[in-house]
Amino acid sequence: MKTLFLKNMMPIAVIALGISGAFVTTSMQSATKTLGLVTGYTLNAQGDCDIPVSCEENHREFVCKVDIDSGAQAYGKDALGNCTQVLYRPE
Q1: Most exposed residue of 18, 52, 69, 72, measured as fewest CB within 10 angstroms of its CB?
Q2: Residue 82 belongs to domain spanning
């Protein structure tokens, strides 16, 4: 009786374990990836976008600035070198 129970239940247990493993692996692959720090740039006195500031690309509550309270906003550069990408203050 015990051997018959194990013979019948073992394939079901292996299938259940395989399916749960597939779901766990899929959810780990689709987890949000945190982006690291990127260099943002602010305008200098001549209007060029070349003053580096450490920022993040992850959407946060506050935008990246040189000075938290009253500084100029920092932007990321696009492929043409224009400061157009909004960056956010790192935590």
Answers
A1: 69
A2: 37-86
